[in-house]
Amino acid sequence: MRLVFRIRIVGAEHLPRWGPALVAANHVSLLDPPAVFTLLYRAGRRARFLAVSDLWRITVLGWLLRRGRMIPVERGQGPDRMVRHACAALEAGQVVVIYPEGHVAPPELPLGRTGPGKPGAGMLALRTSAPVVPVAILGLRRRNPRWWRLPPRDITIVVGRPVDLSGLRGRLDPEAALGASEAMLAEIRALMASRATPGRNRPRRRPRRSPPPR
User: Fold this and answer.
1) What confidence tier does 186 reach under pLDDT thresholds 50, 70, 90?
2) Nearest CA to 134 among 187, 177, 94?
3) Domain for residue 201, yes or no?
């Protein structure tokens, strides 16, 4: 990531230095997981990500996912198995990363917005007492398809205070689960809005060098 992007982190103090934590992030790019990994690595935490089980069938990627002990999410099946594995990781004091939207946001979605929440993330949050830490990733949305040929681009990762789910605790019904996911996304949108000032998160242009005197 460092070779291609410059990552700036805001609010890292909101990440627990030890103990379980459920990190909820927006999902706008396939580069979101490496960005969140960088955030947690700098904070001295190791994360376990949720990923669709189809990725395990890709030879090299599947090996990496198994090596990193990632948690598979089965398409078309309920969240029970995923929630069970993620809860076990949290009970062991680990950090679990989830995307309440459940998939990468469509490209036509306006900047600063998120897709609708899925109940699986909310169900996981309500089944654990671990703090739910919202994370907003900015700068990965509109990028040139030939990004690898460009100078490093700025990415900002904003970490917020834990999401207050006290009004939903004790409930495990689908409505409460969806409400918890939407509460996470509302906090993520607020974090994105807090950084949405003119000129912020835009790539910095390197000054042109003057030719050497002849």
Assistant:
1) very high
2) 187
3) no
